[in-house]
Write a structure and sequence with these properties.
The protein is mainly α. It has a domain of about 150 residues. The protein is built from ten helices and two strands, in the order ααββαααααααα. It has a two-stranded antiparallel sheet. Helix 5 crosses helix 9, helix 6 crosses helix 7 and helix 8 runs antiparallel to helix 9. The longest helix is centred in the C-terminal third of the chain and has 44 residues. It is extended. The termini are far apart. InterPro entries: DNA-bd_dom_put_sf, MerR-type_HTH_dom, MerR_fam.
Length: about 230
């Protein structure tokens, strides 16, 4: 197929496809003339994957390049691929320096029976979150983490089961990418939906109680208390 058809079938504009080609996110097509190239189903699939990572996953072009590199590396295991995807999703900023937050994050991680890996991007992100909460005067936010851990354990197992369902290593690697990037985005969306629903239920209950007014006094009870 020509680049115009590739654009039509994916919804990605031609200039964007050319940009992805220049950035190495999409392999070059088969040249049929100096200014024309032919693309196949593999290009179609890869372009849809790139679009999902950029648009739904919110990854930068540099992060997408790292993720695709892990996907295409025949020597990289699923476990290491997850680490690469995690770094792309979480990002690599300056290592946190708040020693109190670091100690609290370590205590939480070890309290869950998880390995303490201070170099992990996820661990450093947790330290940043705890430090920020403390700076804003919300030290009690630390208590939220236990509930997050209870929710995260079955989700982590579900993610792994989903990844291992791939019929081949290549398929499993792609599932790791999509499950991590899109899974994070999906969980955030579902969490917001659930929170809005819970808030609506509480609001309706409070409105109903306010409309009912105060509970009338029981004269008989007053007489008994005399």
């Amino acid at each position: 197929m020509r680049i115009a058809e590739l654009s039509r079938r994916t919804g990605v504009p031609v200039p964007t496809i050319k940009y992805y080609l220049r950035e190495g996110l999409l392999p070059a097509g088969e040249l049929t003339s100096p200014n024309q190239a032919r693309y196949g189903e593999a290009h179609l699939h890869r372009l849809r994957l790139v679009r999902a990572l950029v648009e739904a996953g919110g990854l930068s072009i540099a992060a997408v390049r790292d993720v695709l590199g892990a996907l295409d590396d025949p020597e990289k295991s699923l476990h290491k691929a997850m680490g690469t995807v995690e770094r792309a999703v979480v990002g690599t900023g300056a290592a946190p320096t708040d020693e109190v937050a670091h100690a609290e994050a370590r205590a939480f991680v070890e309290g869950q029976g998880w390995a303490y890996r201070p170099e992990s991007d996820a661990f450093q992100s947790l330290v940043h979150v705890i430090a920020t909460a403390r700076e804003l005067g919300h030290e009690s936010f630390l208590g939220q983490l236990e509930g997050y851990a209870r929710a995260a354990r079955p989700l982590a197992e579900q993610d792994l089961d989903y990844a291992l369902s791939g019929p081949t290593k290549d398929a499993a690697m792609e599932i790791v990418v999509l499950g991590t990037v899109l899974g994070d985005a999906a969980f955030a969306a579902v969490r917001r939906l659930a929170r809005r629903e819970a808030s609506g239920i509480r609001y309706a209950r409070d409105q109903a109680q306010a409309a009912a007014g105060p509970v009338p006094a029981d004269p008989a009870a007053d007489e008994r208390n005399c």
